[in-house]
Amino acid sequence: MDFNLPPDAAEMQQATRAVVERLLKLEPAYHATGVVPDEVETALREMGFYGMSIPEAYGGTPLDRITSTAIQLELARLPPQFWPFVRSALGPGVHIIVDEGSEEIKKTWLPGIAAGTSRNCIAITEPHAGSDAAKMATTAVRDGDHYVLNGSKTFISNANHAHSITVLASTDRSKGKHGISAFLLDTTTPGFKVDRAMTTMGWMDDSLCEISFTDCRIPASHLLGEEGRGLRYAMTGMNEGRLNVGCQALGPATIALEQAIEHAKTRVTFGQALGEHQAIQHMLADMAMDLHAARMVLWEAVWRAERGEDARLKASMVKVICTEAACRVADKALQIFGGSGYCRGTIAERVYRDLRVLRIYEGASEIHRNMIAKLLLA
After folding, report:
1. pLDDT digit string (tens) for 162-183?
2. Which of the residues 210, 240, 349, 362 is marked catalytic?
3. 220-248: b or e for each residue (b if 16 or more CB lie within 10 Å)?
4. pTM, rounded to two decimals
5. Is 100 a catalytic residue?
6. Domains of the chain
7. Strands 192-197 and 208-219
């Protein structure tokens, strides 16, 4: 196996790194004002990042998984508030539209998503149906040439900024998970409401929402694929999404290690550099080993997925290994920085706070361990 990136992927990685380094200089301004500078969105659009998973026929610039992963590892060095809509454009909601949407749906929605001017999100989780998605209570009842949608969803990323939502709802409650279907909802549809934006520990913005549907009439043509296959479509998209989460974990953990190394070289304690203390050296060594091992797991999974192999087992392994390793690295980085790392506005504090959610969303670590065991025992 060649561990060097293909030339095109390496070139895109370097170009992305240059953009990221420029945008990182805007992070202090963001922390001071709470407003993401306009320059960030402009740069992301100019680089074409929104169209990485969308076919050229619909305005996208589709990339192979190797190149996309290299780019995402760089983007993930940014504060998560800088690129939430790129993550959505790479997520399962858009994948379902690409794979299962009608030609009319694709022509209507994908060009805007690829350009970064139209935003999509996916709505699966409900107040009483999280990891057990088959228990969802939101319903879609056929009524002539429409479906009538009723119910509520929670923890929906970017719902308050979305122009369209890929919604999973039950079309036949008696069939459980085999009765769940996928729909595309225009957020201007009467009866759709963003009930509230949720305040969270990390990812300090207003993009995590509770939403509701009250007699929302969706054209029957907005059914994505076939009735009863919505959960299967979502799980297929989430396999790739979990590889993306691996990037979202390792990107910030890498910058945390880099910052910790620099701090260990320049901070003087007891008459010598902090990094000359063996306790700190061992922490840095553990951080580097954790990251290297997790990175190898990610790249192997991406390589196998690009070859068309079944990604379910490896995707779950990536989700657990990368997110848990990243959290260990972030914890050690904050410890190395000491009191200054605990203060709001530092990269060590930001990374520590923001990484924690990655062990929960896109399937909690415990759920993925169950899935791994199930696949091993099958």
Report:
1. 999 999 999 999 898 999 999 9
2. 362
3. eebbbbebbbbbebbebbbbbbbbbbbbb
4. 0.92
5. no
6. 7-115 (1.10.540.10), 120-227 (2.40.110.10), 232-377 (1.20.140.10)
7. antiparallel
